[in-house]
Amino acid sequence: MTHPYQPAPYGYNPVPARPQRSSGTAVALEIVLGIFGIFGVGNLYAGRIGTGIALMVSFWVLFWINFMLTFIVIGWFTYPVTWIVFLVVGPISAARGVERYNAGY
């Protein structure tokens, strides 16, 4: 019969490890939803809450600024550039966020 207060074996960690996240999922969330103008979701998935919310809010602020600029024609050029920049920066940021999350930072 074993003693009920036996020490744990060496290397035993009673706290379960947090689940790993997929950088592919984070990038896919950013790209697929970004096509529809919803940026930052991949960063939220990656655990970068502040970055995700900042991407969401800043895109919509810039969207409305670009919309107003369409009345003086410049918005027709600035809107696609803004969208493309967010479509590139969002997935890169999300992939890096997943790497940091999985590393435990």
In short:
Helix content is 65%, strand content 0%. The protein is mainly alpha-helical and 105 residues long.
Description:
- The protein has one domain.
- The protein has 105 residues and is mostly helical.
- It has helices spanning 23-35, 41-45, 49-69, 75-103.
- The radius of gyration is 21 Å and the shape is rod-shaped.
List its salient traits.
65% helix, rod-shaped, 4 helices, 105 residues, mainly alpha, single chain
Which range does the strand content fall in? under 5%
Describe the main β-sheet briefly.
none
Please tally the helical runs, counting DSSP H or I stretches of 4 or more residues: 4
Measured as a percent range, the helix fraction is 55-70%
Q: Helices and strands: which structural class? A: mainly alpha
Show the helix and strand layout.
Elements: H1 23-35, H2 41-45, H3 49-69, H4 75-103
